[in-house]
Amino acid sequence: MSVTARWFRRGDHLVMLGASAGAFLLLALSTFTSWPVGAGGLAGAGATTVNPVMAAQAGDCLNWTRKDLADVAKVDCASQHLFEVTGVADISAAHGPQAPFPDDAQWQQISQEQCAKMSLDYLGGKFDPFGKYTVGPLNPGERLWGEGQRTLRCGLQVAGPAGGLLPAYGTARTQDQSDVYDPGVCLGITETRSVADPVECVQPHTFEITGVVALPPGEFPAAEAQDDFMAGECARITAEYTGGVDIRAQGLIFTWDTRAPESWAAGSRLANCKVGATPTDGGLTAWQGSVRNPNAPPLTTSNPPQTTAVQQADATGAPLHSESNTSSAAPSSSGTKPSKPDESETTTATTTTTPSR
Q1: How many CA atoms does the CB half-sphere of 330 hold within 13 Å?
Q2: Nearest to 273 by CA among 287, 288, 255, 259
């Protein structure tokens, strides 16, 4: 069976969408992360330090706070983590003792060859190519590579639209993979006026999430049906979120996300309602502050929190769906005209509320 592929850029990462035998695969190297050489801390005098990455197996979750992963530790997947191991790959047959350490492009190829199918199998064949999870490897790093280490930990991560890793909660095997955020999250803006990683709402941002909607069960709903349903739900949710404030008077509109057929097939049923500034000059417009009712009760995150990656077919932003059913979006890098809502294959999804830490 032939394989079709479409490439697009999300942040600094190349993503490949391919269809083969009915399964959609996504390869997004959220990081070219190397194992820490001496992680795990000292277990006591005379004890051998065990690198948690070297001991990790499929189903294990890892978390760290340092960029060099020096404090990496195995954690319960129900708690915050940055990497869920989907399998261990030995690449010694293709990369012998004298093979040089691969560059980024080579690591991407290795991950595609070793980690994509392994991760799809780990998820039982249910993978949302527009969802929150991306596939990536933890590689041995140059030092351990030079010592002959040729094993990788393949796994799933969540990366923001600007490339920053976001925390995940719960095993990917059981999570709805929709790329949604909890209410109250604000998504930043890049220099090219596209959606960036989550920021405090006092900072310039593109969208503020007002709620998460579960689409009706059943067969995949056409784009028009999703728009009709989301328009009504988001009008109600946004009115509750804002306390009935006239956001149009502030130059803002409410908008929403929809799901693609590939996402629906993987079980993704959630979509965000959000508020954004009216686009100008063919691009997303930054605004500051929050439209949330200051007298409303404190927000609570879902359990587990909705953590996701924002993915877009266009580097400059997906179409805005508004209550007037009009669409405005920044043009793609190729200069094509922005899509209308009923022409959009998928929309930007948004993200997560992470607890303060």
Answers
A1: 21
A2: 255
Other Cβ atoms within 10 Å of 133 Cβ, number:
28
pLDDT of 51-63, one tens digit each? 888 889 999 999 9
The DSSP bridge partners found for residue 272 are 212
For the record, the structure tokens of 54 come out as 């070297």
Which residues make beta-bridge pairs with 153? 88, 138
pLDDT digit string, tens, across residues 29-76: 434 456 554 444 333 444 456 688 888 999 999 999 888 888 899 999
DSSP 8-state code for residue 167: -
Environment class of 347 (CB within 10 Å of its CB; exposed 0-12, middle 13-18, buried 19+): buried
Whole-model pTM: value is 0.74
Query: Before 304, cis peptide (omega within 30)?
Result: yes
How many other C-beta atoms can be found within 10 angstroms of the C-beta atom of residue 91? 17
DSSP letters of 291-320?
-S-TTSPPP---SS--------SSTT-PPP
Residue 151 CB contacts under 8 Å (≥ 6 apart), including other chains? 54, 88, 89, 90, 91, 92, 140
Strands (E), 102-232: 134-139, 151-159, 165-166, 186-189, 195-199, 207-214
Which residue's entry shows tokens 């009915």? 22
